[in-house]
Amino acid sequence: MAAYSIIYLLIFLSSGVVAGLVYVLVTREPTCSWIKRFSGMQASGVNQASSALLVLSIAFLLHDVSQIRQKASETLLLEADILRTLGRVSVNLSRDMGQPMLHLLAAYSDSVLHNDWPKMQRGFSGSMVLNYVQDGYGVGDGIRTHDSNNATPVSLTKIIAISDFVYSNLDRFGHPLISQQMAASVQKLRELRLQRLELSNKHPTFEKVLLGLFFSLNSILVLLLTHADRPRALFAAVFLFSWLSLTSLFTVTIMHNPYAGTDPLGPSAIAAALERLRVMAGDVPLLVETR
To answer: What are the domain boundaries of the chain?
Structure first.
């Protein structure tokens, strides 16, 4: 949040600089005489159109943010629900099957909280997500254990361990329906994990942001040409317009990652699932490494 505060402060100062430059243009020669020839021109329609298009650009970006956030929230809730469901089924299995499964599920949940989540808040790079997707579905030559930043994807090894345990013991779950449920749940868990990682790499398209900046610049130019005879009012109008428009564009840009920004989603659902799994497992310490 401290970094965002600094950027918001820089936007505020930059808006003042832009307004100051505009003020200098309309009060100093040789630009003063040329600009004031347009003073009083009837361009309110152009200015209103530019402002309206800017608002529409920001609205489209906010719509994208809303959809991404809703999908991310649903993904987290479903992932946590599947973890609890797998845990509840494991409790009713024989001890030699249920306890190892509970330990693996708890280890995976712990790795999501302590390994995946910090990276998700920073946003995975595109190549990192691709490697995760390929590894998650067994694509490529072997399993990648390091991404481009040499960070070990711990949750990947945990989900692989869960998959190996379930698929290698399908005939030991006691009933074909239980085996089918366990296999389907693990497959869904893999898909939700990949979806969660992919959502952390969301960002607004360059064209939409550029379009918003273009309409902002166009509105500032119209203000400059139509209010050149009132430099103080022009300074205030340009400053406020620049500050509000740039702040809005920056806010919707950083909010495209639902796990970061000014109002990020928290890992409370996964944390609650981890606590529940530990309760299900009893007082037996985890037999697998969680870091």
So the answer is: 1-37+204-255, 58-196+264-291
